[in-house]
């Protein structure tokens, strides 16, 4: 009998991952809504260490803005 792979919810801001079974909706570190699947193709997040979707290559975290010189 095949096992169901574990899925994770991932904070796109800080990268915190929690097992989906916890049913957390928001990151306890920064209040950001957790990703429940890839925003590009809806593939479940299967690793708490993933930064990119293995199916479509979409980044899970939004890139941080680059600092402007002189600011």
TrEMBL record:
Residues 11-57 form the DZANK-type domain. InterPro entries: DZR, NOB1_Zf-like_sf. This is RNA-binding Zn-ribbon protein involved in translation (DUF1610 family). It holds the Pfam family DZR.
């Amino acid at each position: 009998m095949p096992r169901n792979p574990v899925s994770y919810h991932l904070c796109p801001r800080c990268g915190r991952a929690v097992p989906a079974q916890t049913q957390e909706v928001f990151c306890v570190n920064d209040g950001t809504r957790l990703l429940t699947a890839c925003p590009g193709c809806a593939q479940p997040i299967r690793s708490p260490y993933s930064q990119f979707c293995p199916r479509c290559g979409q980044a899970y975290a939004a890139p941080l803005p680059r600092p402007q010189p002189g600011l």
